[in-house]
Amino acid sequence: MSSYQILTDGAQDLYPELFHSTNIRRIPMRTACGGRDFEIGDDTTRDDILTFYRLLKEQPAYTSQISPGIYEHYFEQYLEKGLDVLYLCMSGGISMQFHQSEVAAKLLQARYPERTIRCLDTRTCTAGGNLICARAEANQAAGMDLSENFDDLESFKAHIGLYGIVTELDHLHRGGRLSSVGALVGNALNIKPFLHMRDDGVLAIREKVRGAKNATKTLARTAGEDPDPAHRICYLSHADNEALCEEVKKLILEKTEIETVYTGLLNPIIGSHLGSGGISMAVLCAKPVS
User: Fold this and answer.
1) H/E stretch holding 184
2) What is the separation of C-alpha 71 from the centre of its chain, rounded to a whole number of angstroms?
3) Residue 198 exposed, middle or buried by CB count within 10 Å (0-12, 13-18, 19+)
4) Among 1-5, 18-22, 168-172, 253-257, which is the least confidently predicted range?
5) Which residues contact 12 (CB under 8 A, 6 or more apart)?
C-alpha cells in the first residue's frame, strides 16, 4: 500500500487543538483587506485572523483563488518524495478551486504515472473542514489506502450539515453582495440571514431571522434536528464574535442531544464574504443533507 499525504486548503477551518500532526497540510490561500495581505494556511496565527476581522469591520476584503500552477507546486512536493496525494477541496459550488485542482492533477499525473492524485470536492468549507479532515485522518490512521479513504469521504460528506448566520449587512453592501436599500431595510428590521450549504455545494439563504437572539436559537435548533447518534459533535467557527459563539454553544448543549461542541475562529477566506461577527456551524447528520 502506497503512503499518501492528505492536503486541504485555507478555506477549511482546522482547530489547532484538534489537529496537531502533519498528517493534514493546508495549501495557503490569500485575502487582502485594509491595504494588508493575509496568507491563510498552516502558519496563520490567531492574531493574524483577529487583525483581519478588525480591518473587515470598516473595509471590504478580496480573496484570491489557488491557481493550477500553485496546486502543481504543492502537489509535486509530495509526489517527488514518492507519496500519493489526497486533496480535500473547499466546495466546488462556491469556487472554481476544485476545477483548478483537477487541471493540476491531470498535468502531474502525466509526469508521475506511478503516483496517484485524487481531488475530492468536499461540498463544505469553514467549520465543516474539521469534520471532513478528522474523518480523513482517522481513516488513514486505521489503515485505509487512498482509494478506500476517498470512497468513504465521498459518502461521508453528504452527512455534513453546514450552516451560518450573517450579522453585518453593511459588510455585504460594501462588498457589492447587497444593495444599499437591502442593507438599509435589513438593518432597520434587524434581519440576520441564516445560510446553509445545499447538497450541490452552493451556499444559500435558508431563512431570514430577526434579531441576534433568534439567530442563535435557530442555529441551536438546527443543530439538534438530525444529529448522528454515534457522533453527537458540533463545530462552531466565529468571525471575531466569541460571545455570540459561546451563547450558541450553551444553547446547543442545553437544548439538543449534541454532547460536544468545539469552537474556533472562522478562516478569513470565508470570513471575507460572511463579514465580521458571523458564525459558521457544522454538524454530522444521521441522514444525507438536502
Assistant:
1) helix 180-188
2) 19
3) middle
4) 168-172
5) 26, 88, 90, 122, 124, 125, 126, 128, 129, 130, 132, 133, 267
CATH 3.30.1180.10 occupies which residues in the chain? 159-284
137 close to 5: Cβ distance less than 8 angstroms: no
- Per DSSP, the residues of 140-174 read HHTT--HHHHHHHHHHHGGGEEEEEE---HHHHHH
What CATH architecture is 4-158? 3-Layer(aba) Sandwich (3.40)
Ranges for all domains in the chain classified under CATH 3.40.50.10170: 4-158
Greater model confidence, 189 or 143: 143
Task: Report which of 21, 28, 62, 63 is spatially closest to residue 43, judged by C-alpha positions.
Answer: 28
Give me the chain's average pLDDT, please. 90
pLDDT band at 21 (very low <50, low <70, confident <90, very high): low
Note the pLDDT of residue 290.
83
Distance CA 228, CA 194 (A): 22
Mean pLDDT in residue range 234-242: 97
Q: What is the CATH number of domain 159-284?
A: 3.30.1180.10
% helix, strand, coil for the chain, step of 5: 40, 25, 35
Tell how strand 4-9 and strand 84-89 pair up.
parallel
